[in-house]
Specification:
Order of helices and strands: HHHEHHEEHEHHHHEHEHHH
Radius of gyration: 24 Å
Largest sheet: 6 strands, parallel
Strand order of the largest sheet: 3-2-1-4-5-6
Number of strands: 6
Strand content: 5-15%
CATH topology of one domain: Rossmann fold
Length: about 400
Amino acid sequence: MLSNFQSWIRYSFSGYLSLISSSIIYFLYLSSIHSTNITHNTPYFTNIALSLFNITTFTTMLTTELQHKIDFKTKPLGALGHLEHLAHKIGMVQNTTSPQLSNPHMVVFAADHGIAKAGVSAYPQEVTYQMVMNFLGGGAAINVFCRQHGINIKIVDAGVSFDFPEGLDLIDKKVRKSSRNILDEPAMTSEEYQQALQNGSSVVAEIAKTGCNIIGFGEMGIGNTSASSLMMSKLFDLPVVSCIGRGTGLNDDQLQNKINILSSAIEKYPDIRTPDEIAQTLGGLEIAQMIGAMEEAFRQNMLIMVDGFIATVAITTAWKKNPEILKNCIFCHVSDENAHLQLLELLGQKALLNLNLRLGEGTGCALAYPLIQSAVNFLNEMSSFEDAHVSNKE
């Protein structure tokens, strides 16, 4: 029978091998500095090298300790499946073997799209502001699920084509009333886009002050699946038709009309290349603010719950600028929107849920949150073989 002690030695040994590798990397790093005109005795560069060594060493030790803690719970190895990977990820983000979820938040960004007037959605544009009022009244699906799971919800007017009355519990970050019609001109000017990024960032910065360390993002905006399809096409240089779905429920004729309109739209902008150019030209104000919000959440080292197709396009844009952001992301569900699974595969990600949702609002995040909490709870509360006096496998 393999004793717990023998197993511990096995895991510890693998950790020490990693430490040896880190030391070799450190030596090579110092050697490369010494070969330049600046010697490794220069304090500034020595401090950088030592910092890199310490970070690598700490990371190696933490990932080994987390895996050991997960593997020695009272269960067969890997028996909790994706929850084990999730627990490990959360521990690595929070730099601890005993992570906690604090003051969870959901932020729903709302804005209108100029291209909606071309008939790319099954619903009229005024549904955007009507749904915002529904959010504020607590009657939407996202409200129900957030209440159920104790998630704080914030609604942001990023660019709704409506004058909301004063006194509402609405965060006013309106850059302009609706993005422009991309069939005629870019969705936003450079200044408007930068303001949208900053607005999204400021919302999360304020939430971070409350001690929140896990946050999800939802959206509301008639026409935003069209904007997201165009962005995905440009971000990965894919045929636009492969990125288009039924959105809010188009029939076959409406879907073909959407394909024709978006094919014409993307042909107008052959030279846009960078993630920011793509988002500014083809995106929407709520998407832009979501990008800024996600980037700020990463700076705050929050766990980022990613919802459906539109939110995944937003995080993809941020990822194109900084690939490290995916370390903090939890992809909550794969939606029924045609291109979402393809997009997740391009990012190398697997979603927690597949419920054929296509609602948006952040609903997938709210539904997945209990699973995320379960991953944390089993890591912190489930007995180990030694604690429970249960024999491990032979």
